[in-house]
Write a structure and sequence with these properties.
By secondary structure, the chain is an alpha/beta fold. The protein is about 40% helix and about 10% strand. It has 16 helices and twelve strands. The strands form four sheets. Strands 2-3-4-1-6 form a five-stranded parallel β-sheet, with helices on both faces. Strands 9-12-11 form a three-stranded antiparallel β-sheet. It has a two-stranded parallel ribbon with strand order 5-10.
Length: about 375
């Protein structure tokens, strides 16, 4: 049997992953794209698709930890590798089941940053303190600030049916994020991730120059694993999987493709494997619905009963990119919701009418969709 590799199941820290010798699919070429592009970025992908790991990679890059990037693409570019001040905010660590939960989380971040950059705490709002931190970090280091926000929508998705709660969290986040525009002269990069992008009531309403790369062909495989990456990185593991299941290498590859491939996030984008299921299968050497079994998205569970359409009729819908991008609080469309949470994906694009045809990505999601329909029928 081929030597076993170490697979980073659930590992979201780039530094830990590299220090401990886990298998890593090199996504650092996208950092070069970011360096040459915009100041503000937004990326939406389904849960467990590698958004947090990419943000962690950006964090280590801007902190100047070059030793972690040895042998990777980004190590070959012309870059000074001097550390920037990095403000990293993970909004996925709290359940937001109380009105104060978001404020407490942001307060904790601010206190750490104020201590780190020697900021004298001022009386005022969380937003004004954040402004002060950005200015002080810039003045202390002489470098513009990098701001990374993971799962920006977590405080919102659990309150779609609670308009007061939704508006409270949206208002707090909008005030906090307003600093991104007002402090532009002191900011090197803002990179925000999430599952959903809300339309009419966006927390980014004051940030009109944010670049949404969620449907950008150049970034279609920034998260997840492409077919080329599967063979380049995981061939030893696939050989072990095949041997453990009495299959040929070719049969194992076909099985993986049938079960876990098929995601597409841009009209000319690559087909993408679900990284969470793929890593679990290769590590355990057993096929299974790992992504589906890891939990149904909160936003889907909460919104199923609001749908007045037959979910079975949504297997191959056609819609515009505008319909896929945004969620309306008053009337969240099931197609956008199913796409953003990973139950539907892009199958084709017709440039003559600018419409996307969607479909279920693969066998694992098909089985999960059947469970979703069953839950929906029970709820009705």
């Amino acid at each position: 049997m081929t030597r076993r590799e170490k697979y980073p199941i659930g590992q979201q820290s780039f530094e830990v992953l590299r220090d401990k010798g886990y298998v890593y699919v090199d996504k650092t070429r996208f950092i070069e794209e970011i360096l040459e592009g915009s100041q503000y970025y937004f990326l939406a992908r389904p849960r467990r698709f590698g958004k947090s790991l990419f943000l962690s990679t950006l964090k280590c890059f801007y902190e100047g930890k070059r030793h972690l990037f040895e042998g990777l693409y980004i190590d070959s570019i012309d870059w000074e590798w001097e550390p920037y001040p990095v403000l990293y905010i993970d909004l996925n660590v709290v359940n937001y089941d109380s009105p104060e939960s978001l404020s407490i989380l942001l307060e904790n971040h601010l206190e750490r940053w104020e201590e780190k950059y020697g900021v004298k705490r001022i009386a005022g709002s969380i937003a004004s303190r954040f402004t002060n931190v950005i200015h002080s970090a810039y003045n202390t280091t002489g470098k513009r600030v990098v701001i990374l926000v993971d799962e920006y929508d977590k405080p919102l998705v659990g309150h779609l049916s609670d308009k007061d709660g939704f508006e409270r969290f949206r208002s707090d986040l909008a005030a906090f994020y307003a600093n991104f525009k007002s402090c532009a002269d002191f900011i090197e990069l803002v990179f925000i991730t999430g599952v959903s992008r809300f339309g009419k009531l966006s927390v980014f309403s004051g940030l009109n120059n944010i670049k949404d790369i969620s449907f950008d062909n150049r970034f279609s495989d920034i998260c997840g694993i492409s077919g080329e990456e599967l063979l380049d990185v995981f061939t030893p593991g696939i050989k072990n999987l095949a041997e453990a299941n009495g299959q040929s290498f070719e049969k194992a590859c076909n099985e993986l493709k049938h079960r876990y491939d098929g995601y597409r996030f841009a009209n000319k984008g690559k087909d993408i494997y679900n990284p969470y299921s793929l890593l679990n299968v290769i590590d355990s050497e057993q096929y299974g619905n790992y992504w589906i079994e890891s939990g149904q998205p909160t936003i889907l569970k909460d919104q199923l009963t609001r749908f007045n359409v037959d979910l079975e009729s949504l297997l191959h819908p056609c819609c515009s990119i505008e319909a896929l991008k945004g969620l309306d609080l008053d009337n969240p469309h099931p197609i956008a919701l199913l796409y953003q949470t990973g139950y539907l994906t892009i199958k084709s694009y017709n440039p003559s009418d600018s419409l996307y045809t969607l479909g279920i990505p693969n066998k694992e999601v098909e089985e999960g969709f059947l469970m979703l329909i069953s839950d929906w029928k029970v709820s009705k």
